[in-house]
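Please predict the structure of the following assembly.
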Amino acid sequence: MTPSSQLQVMLAEENGATPSVRVVQALSEHGALSATQLARITGLAKSTISTALTSLRASAMVIESSAAEKDRGAGRPATTITLNPAAGTCVGVLLGGEHIQVIVADVTHAVISDVALPMKTDYSPQEAVTATSRLIGEAYREHRLSLQTMLGVGIAVAGPINPRDGRVLRASGVPTWSGVNIKHEFQRVLKCPVIAENESNCSAIAELMWGAAVGRQDFIFLTMDLAIGGAVVANGQLVSGNAGAAGEFGHICINPDGPLCRCGNHGCLELYAGLKEPLGEFSRQFGQEVTIDEVISLARGGNLAAQTMIEQVAHVAGQGLGIIASVVNPGLVVVGGRLALARELLLAPLEASFNRHSLVKRSELDADARTQVLSSAFSGRGACLGAVGLVLRAGGRTG
Amino acid sequence: MTPSSQLQVMLAEENGATPSVRVVQALSEHGALSATQLARITGLAKSTISTALTSLRASAMVIESSAAEKDRGAGRPATTITLNPAAGTCVGVLLGGEHIQVIVADVTHAVISDVALPMKTDYSPQEAVTATSRLIGEAYREHRLSLQTMLGVGIAVAGPINPRDGRVLRASGVPTWSGVNIKHEFQRVLKCPVIAENESNCSAIAELMWGAAVGRQDFIFLTMDLAIGGAVVANGQLVSGNAGAAGEFGHICINPDGPLCRCGNHGCLELYAGLKEPLGEFSRQFGQEVTIDEVISLARGGNLAAQTMIEQVAHVAGQGLGIIASVVNPGLVVVGGRLALARELLLAPLEASFNRHSLVKRSELDADARTQVLSSAFSGRGACLGAVGLVLRAGGRTG
């Protein structure tokens, strides 16, 4: 067996597997690890890890290297172990509103390729499969990678997915996709394991693996963009919800007498904290179409209308965070989406409003019991990276 | 060593312990189990379980019996194993608004004693410790139990507890207890391991161990009483929150322009769905003090005002559930508190309102993806039973 096919077999093993398999699955999820970290994560004795590594090195499944630059302290560099990058590749796909993004990474978590293709609004699942398949093929050809090394494809979708039947729920951001089983549609053509997950859940996974939430057990991800989305991680695990509808923060009702939302209910948070309406109003007032990025630039340059717009959505989003905190009281809020690029212009009024609407106030709590609010570590690339993470974390459990 | 002191040692072992210890901890948490269930829960081989049981039987730590009545199918009764009831007792304490309840149970989960003592409103922590200590002493004397067998005391408190420092938060139902470390106060006098937990979290644990949520991984508990409380269980684990303030459903803001709440914020769910205000109004209208139980009786007897009151709080609570479901999308809502005794009179309008305020509607989902709504399995005794459950589940990890 080649390292690549051997890796596919090992990643597909269920829990309770041999030490070698557990080492491979831990490296797949975490990237580079020292032998000590491997022992801690797998719960295996260091001597068992050592025996497993000897045989994995012999079969070219793992390689050793000195620690990456960022991890180097003052002392001698620690030896870290990674999977052999030649042994496997993973693909992350973001099915965006008006584009499809494809990232190819190797099993050491290194990004090899990152491309995007513009799509017309409301593209069909069939068009998405065709475009994705083409983008993947091109990326592999360009980087002289064999498609045989592809361990799986993770797909980030703008909408909740029912984990029981794999179908996109009606509440999706792309209404015409309602009822579609993304996994089946893509698997039929791509002929490899496919995992589909809600876009904000993917963003949360990226933060958990490489971003602002590394090592955190309890946090929420809040997407602030044209629409409002989110994800919940509790006790170290993603909370998907019984029908896949957890973390749908945009549809928290903050005003039952408010206007009709695209979801069919009234007064949803998204209507007040999403950028769609305010941007439209801004554009009408100023006689030209403006984007979120332009509003941020204007606000940075001192434009009062742009600053007020950001403050107003921050205020309502803070009210929403107060509600969310009464349900899960997270240790950390990671704010993503395009508006997160406004950084302090957004976070300062957001935190103030959040505190005002929280049951327990910051001033009553020691620092470690307060809820931290941070910007996403990624500038809009998080969801697609998280889709790669789906494959790396799943360790082949994609059936 | 006596079985009792031996049990205390074994329950205090950390994870990764010997097969015997793992068997004892599983029996402590689950009560009675068959050998097959023990193997599944501990992940140990059946032969290992068998060896462990032989030595545990020899030291009188476990006993065998035929299955309890409720578990008996048509076939021959299965042999179940429990801890030896003589080996240990656990105490659950509920610090209620106007009474203190104490339940003593043995390690097979059998309740030995259940007593309550009325207290004056706003009793102090010191008075609570004295009264609890007396109640425990009396119960042990009456049932000729040795206090040496007491493995620990679980305490249910009407208010969130910061898990980092063990102190009751200001948002407590008993404001004068704010800042008190319940565990320390009680441990000093009771001289045994003490675990303190929020009352609604205790209720959720009781439902999880013996009630409406047995075997469920994702559910919320909603307390409907004079006040509104709750608890969140996700992926099989209680979500306490970073400062212990998860599940504080009563303080979800449903109207930022609404009246001031005792928590200091405005328009909290509790102001609309709690029974305090409506009961007061009802009493004024009808010229006499009425209790929740009386309102339920009146409603059952056809009293329209009582029926309307229940429907109105059900409507608002359903709006709150819609919000909670957009955050965690639970598979099950267990409704507890005194008003839950209204059963269908409450649940029917509650479910209708919940569905109206939910992002994803029942009609769009297969039965298993819908959120079930059930009444609590306990009539107000759940929180104190859950406090017993804290000790049984903790397996001695009360440090």
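Chain B has a mean pLDDT of 89. The two ends of chain B are 22 Å apart (CA to CA).
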